[in-house]
Write the C-alpha cells for this entry.
Amino acid sequence: MKISQKTHQSIRLQNIIFSLFFLAIVSLLAWLSTQYSTQSDWTNTNRNSLSPASITLLEKLNKPIQIEAFSTDNELLRKRIKILVAQYSHHKSNINLNFINPDIRPDIAREEGITSDGQLLIKYGSKRSIVSQLDEQSISNTLQSLALDQQRWLVFLEGHGERSSEGNSNFDLALFVQELKNKGINSQKINLIETPSIPKNTSLIVLASPQVSLLKGEIELIEHYLLQGGNLLILAEPGQTQFLEPLTTPLNIKFLPGIVVDATTQTFGLNDPTYALITHYPDHLITKHLKAMSLFPGAVGLSAIPSQPFVATTLLSTLERSWTETDPIEGNIQFDNNTQEKQGPVIIGAALTRLLDKKSTPPIQQRTVIIGDGDFLSNAYLANGANLNLGLSIVQWLNHDDDFINVPAKTATDQSLEITQTWSIIFGLGFLFFLPAVFIGIGVYIWFKRKKQ
C-alpha cells in the first residue's frame, strides 16, 4: 500500500497530538503527586508506620511540636531522623524539624545538654526534653510526658519489707520504675516512721507487698490520704495478706485463704502450678487494649463485697480450671470440695472507684487497684507477656491519664529469614547445578536455532 503525502502528514499530526496528550497526562500526574500522597507498610509489625496508640496521642496534642536534631554532617543519620519524624508529621502537620550541627554550634549543644550525636530536643509548649533513642517508643513516651499538665509522683511506702523501687534483685521493682520514668512519671520512697506525712504532690501511693504490719499511726495517715481522695495501688502476696487487711477491709475487699494454682501449667512448660495465667481481659480502660497473656507467679484470690461508696470491678480473673489451694503444694494436688478452697475462675485483681464530685464533667473519681500478686511487676517477671503493659496501664489509670495509653515497642520480627536444612540443600543445589544447567541449555538452544538460519 502506497502512503500519500497527505496520509503521511496525518499520521505525523496524530503522533504529535498523542505526544502532547501523553506529556500533559504525565505532567498532571506529577503535579497531583505533589498535592496528594499515599503510603503502605508491608512489614510484619508495621514498624515503618505509627502505632494506633501514637496516632491517638498526636490527636490529643493541640500545640505545635518543635524538634531540633543535633546531628553532624552524617547523611545516613540525618535521613534516619527525617524518616522517623515524617511518620509523625503525616498525622500532625504542625511539627517542625530543624537540624543543628553540634560541631559548628557547640555553644547551643552545651546549653541544651546535648552529649551525643543524633540526640533530639523536643519542645512542646513551655516544656522540653531530650530523646537519645531514635525509635517510636522513645519519642511517643517523651511527647506523652511533655503533654502531662503536671508531674506525676508515685510514692512507694517502705519500712515493712516492701519491694524496693530502686533495688535490682529479682524481688524488686527497679525496671518497672524506670519504665514509669520514661512515661514522665517520677517516683520517690517514703518511710512514714521517719517522715510522718504524705507529700502534697503525691498522685499515687504504692504499697508493694509489705512483710510486716503497719503501725496504727501509719494506717491513720494512709486513711486520711484516702479520705482526701488519694489514689492507691496495693500489691498483695499469699501468706502476707493480714498486713494489708486494715486497709482493704474498709474497701470491702477480702483475701481468700490459700494460693491460686493451676495443675495444667505443665502443658505450657511451667513446672510450678502456682503460676496463674490470665488470657482474657474485661472491657476496662486498664485492660481492653491488652492482647497477650499475663503471668502471675504465686497469687492470692480476692473477694469483693458490693457496697457503697466504693464500686468494685473485676480486673483480672484466672481460668476456670484453677482454684485456691489451702494445703501444702506437694505431690498430686487437686481441688477439695467442702473446704475453704474456691474453684476457678478466681479474681486476683480488682479496680475500685468512688465518686468525689458528681457535678464536674467528667465526674471526678477516686481510684484504687488491688492485685493479689506483686511478682508480675518485679525485675524477674516484668518482661513476661503483657505484664509490663498491664502495670503501666494500671498506673496511668490510677493517675487519671486515661487519654495516654501505653505505646508498645516496635520490634522487627521479619528482619531474619529462618531456613530449614532441607531448603538449604535445595537452594545450594539450585544455585550450583540447576540454574547453570538452565543457562547452558538456553545458550545451546539459541546456538542451534541461529545455525539453522
User: Anything to note?
Assistant: The chain has two domains: 52-144, 152-398.
